[in-house]
Amino acid sequence: MATRSPKKPAHNVHNGVNQLRIIGGQWRSRKLSFPDAPGLRPTPDRVRETLFNWLAPYVEGAKVLDPFAGSGALFLEALSRGAAMGQALDASNIAVSSLKEHLGTLRCTNGQVQTADALRYLETQTASAYDLVFLDPPFNQNLLPAVCNLLEERQWLAADSWIYTESETAPSTLGLPGNWRLHREQKSGRVYYALWQRTAEVAA
């Protein structure tokens, strides 16, 4: 989950340190701390639980990309539930350092995380096809359309990949690639959560 404008916390806060809980999989119920940085908010437990119920048949063995990892809640949840490998990015050195510590604590060897600007990374690095992508960019910067177009145009997606988005506007207004089908959507407070399925053929 990416850094963004502060909103009501959906986690526990103790002496400037926040906690997230892994909901399912091999690290189920593990609690991990992350920095109390401005705007660093994990996807709420109830939303993560709903999302991973939607994704239940598709996570195990998947290659996962999280370009705006933030606290790492979605990234770690996917790895806990059997994803084959994961690549996480975040522009914040603090967030990346914290997530690296989590991977070490969990003795996770199939997850990688690095400090990077998502747009620049997707535009300049050699693409690898991912099965599952989490997109939770900072709000009010119109980042989703640009990121999604780069994922599609530069071949970062497997033929039948799944893409999860969080946005401040309704999924129908996002203008995402024409070959992405809206599979499920939900709204919690002012945030829209949506799951998309990619089809290989680009719509005209």
Automatic annotation (TrEMBL):
Q: Which domain of life is it from?
A: Bacteria
Q: Under the GO molecular function aspect, what terms does this record hold?
A: 16S rRNA (guanine(966)-N(2))-methyltransferase activity
| EC number, as in UniProt | 2.1.1.171
Looking at the UniProt entry, the stretches that span the membrane are none
Keywords of this protein's UniProt record, alphabetized?
Methyltransferase, rRNA processing, S-adenosyl-L-methionine, Transferase
What's its top-level EC category? transferase
Q: Does the keyword Membrane apply?
A: no
Keyword S-adenosyl-L-methionine recorded: yes
Q: Which reaction does it catalyse?
A: guanosine(966) in 16S rRNA + S-adenosyl-L-methionine = N(2)-methylguanosine(966) in 16S rRNA + S-adenosyl-L-homocysteine + H(+)
Q: Which CDD domains match?
A: AdoMet_MTases (cd02440)
Q: Which family does it belong to?
A: Belongs to the methyltransferase superfamily. RsmD family.
Q: Any idea what job this protein has?
A: Specifically methylates the guanine in position 966 of 16S rRNA in the assembled 30S particle.
Family matches, as NCBIfam families: 16S rRNA (guanine(966)-N(2))-methyltransferase RsmD (TIGR00095)
Protein name per Swiss-Prot or TrEMBL: Ribosomal RNA small subunit methyltransferase D
